[in-house]
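Weekly modeling sync, notes
Attendees: S.R. (lead), two postdocs, one rotation student

Agenda item 3: backlog of single-chain predictions. S.R. asked that every request posted to the team notebook include the full sequence so nobody has to chase files. The rotation student volunteered to paste the first one in as an example of the format we agreed on. Action items at the bottom.

Example entry:
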Amino acid sequence: MNINQIRYVLKAAQCNSFSRAAEELFVTQPTLSQQINKLEQELKLTLFERTTRSIKLTAAGNEFIKYAQRIVNEWTSLEHTMTRHLNLESGKIVLGVLPTLSKLNLTTHIASFMDIHPEAAIELTEVWSEELITKLLSDEIDIAILNPVFPIDRDILSMTECYPIVEDSLMLVVNASHPLSNSPCVDLDSVKQLKMIMPSEHSSIRKTISMVFEKNNINPLIVCESSGVDTMIGLVADGIGVTFLTSRVAEKYKHDNVKAVPILPPIKCQTALVLSKCAQHNKITLAFKNFILDNFNVKEKTKNP
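Predicted structure, as returned to the notebook:
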């Protein structure tokens, strides 16, 4: 019995089909079927009742998957733990960042760090803040650079070291021909009736906006959602609606047919460097943390709880 055979049984049970399971696991159906047959022969038990159209778990098969799922979960945890130890002994950093941070000179900081530490190897993962926190706490990444949302994320961040490195404000992004485009600033009353192009629900910016709207009893008119800044700006440029970006991101994503207008009172948001308190960190990871904090003039004592 091996871990692949166990995974094949679990996927086949989930899909109720050998062919669909093979497709999702990126193996051929004969390979999957042969391995399950081999496992059944080793166990001297039939795990699936087979017909020409479907498969169904036997009583033994149902018992098997209860244990099999726990085995796969433990195996995955073991793989993560061993990868962590491998990284501790090497100069590798797994860095999780927001998709928008490529526009905020992060690559320049990485290049400068690697000039100082040529032994460093950096693996980048670009996802939104919610997924970054999940990956950080499951030891899939070493450092996250994200937009924490308070107080929603405060309980989660109690398990982390969080160092705010940039504070910013949200801007209302409108079409250049929009009546608000020439305003020096806008308030929430001016915004609440507008058609809105909102960031993805997993975006911390979306969570921040939603908190502000809820506090001010605003029911936004959302006509579109997107996880891509280029897409949101393109939709604004085409007159579909308005959107929200931080001032730094809006500055980097300039467009001739789009204007960013300050919101008053300001809606503040932070970008922070975050590490897990529970994880072991290799020397190169700690060196990268200190390098970023130094470059943003952040002292360790300024970290959030």
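Discussion: group reviewed the output briefly. Residues 6 and 237 are 51 Å apart (CA to CA).
Action items: rotation student to repeat for the remaining queue; S.R. to check formatting next week.
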